[in-house]
Amino acid sequence: MLFKQLFEPISSTYTYLLGCEETGDAILIDPVLPTWQRDLTEISKLGLKLVYTLDTHVHADHITSARTLKREAGSRIAHPAIDALACVDVPIEEGTPLAVGRLRIDPLFTPGHTDGHHAYRIGERVLTGDALLIDACGRTDFQSGDPTALYHSVAGKLFSLPEETLVYPGHDYEGRWVSSIAQEKTRNPRLGGNRSLESFVELMNGLNLAYPKFIDYAVPGNRECGVCPPGVPDNLSQYCDQIGESRQG
């Protein structure tokens, strides 16, 4: 398997490029609109063909490039079926693996950050989206978020994976790239150390986080698989515009 972790600095989002060396098929997981050209360049450098894009959930902090990549590269849009998006070509659900060439991607239903969130397990790796971050977790105060559901998704499902499983998050704001199930079970400040459900719910309900600055544009745009809606103010235009450079891991 070819595996590459790509970073988009505006929203601090990780996009994951996976490629099958036997067939040349590739998938992008959580691609971001301003970096779609960079992502296609990376795919071309590796001699691959983009066959799918796949998002972990309907994002509130950036717009997916799924629709743009379908137009430019002919890829099909995969997305969790529970969100019932009309623009999706391949609905995804737990229990039904997605094949990309010889690669197998196992969806894991992990609600709590949003009610439709999925993580994706690929062998010894798990892409956790916004459910489980490095030393953190996604917020639960919008998009039908639910701290009780998130606790069960992480403590009950993700933490039951083998401890050597590598954790690749949807975001990181401190320059970290990868963790492990063992590390997060032990030291995650929000969910590690056998924190109780009651303690976690109290913690999450008391965060009092600021309203997400791009959510009112990102959510409707992502429910159309990646449309930058009209009326985006100038100070937020970078979320839609192609950026010249993007750091990558």
UniProtKB/TrEMBL annotation:
Keywords: Metal-binding. One of its GO terms (biological process) is glutathione metabolic process. It comes from the Bacteria. InterPro entries: Metallo-B-lactamas, Mito_Persulfide_Diox, POD-like_MBL-fold, RibonucZ/Hydroxyglut_hydro. SMART domains: Lactamase_B (SM00849). Residues 12-171 form the Metallo-beta-lactamase domain. One of its GO terms (molecular function) is sulfur dioxygenase activity. Pfam families: Lactamase_B. PANTHER family: PERSULFIDE DIOXYGENASE ETHE1, PERSULFIDE DIOXYGENASE ETHE1, MITOCHONDRIAL. This is Beta-lactamase domain-containing protein. It comes from Thiocapsa marina 5811.
